[in-house]
Amino acid sequence: MVNKALLVRVEAKPGKEGAVEEFLRSALPLVEQEPGTRPWLAVRFGPSTFGIVDAFPDEDARETHLNGPIGKALGERADELFAGAPEISFLDVVADKL
Questions:
Q1: CA 84, CA 96: separation in Å to the nearest integer?
Q2: Which of 24, 72, 76, 96 has its CA 20 to 30 A from that of 87?
Q3: How far is it, in rounded angstroms, from Cα 32 to Cα 86?
Q4: 3-class DSSP assignment, residue 67
Q5: Strand ranges (E), the chain
C-alpha cells in the first residue's frame, strides 16, 4: 500500500508545450530507478498544463524522490520551460488499487 503522494502541476511557457512533454517523458528512466516511487504518471491536463502524479509507501520515499534527479531537473529547467513555479500538493492516500 502507498500512504503518501504528490500532485505537481506546471504551466508551460507559450511555445514550450512540446519541450515540457519531452522533459516529462525523459524523466521516466530516472523514476524507474526509484524503488519507493510507485506509481508515477506524467499527465496533460490541457493544452499547456501538465502534471506528475506519484505515490509512495512512506514519507521517506517521498522525500527521497523530491530530492532526487527528477526534482533537481525540474528546478534546473523551471525558468526555461514553465510560466511559473510548479504547484506541488502533498497528499495522504486513503485507499489505492495498484
A1: 31
A2: 96
A3: 22
A4: coil
A5: 4-11, 40-44, 49-56, 87-92
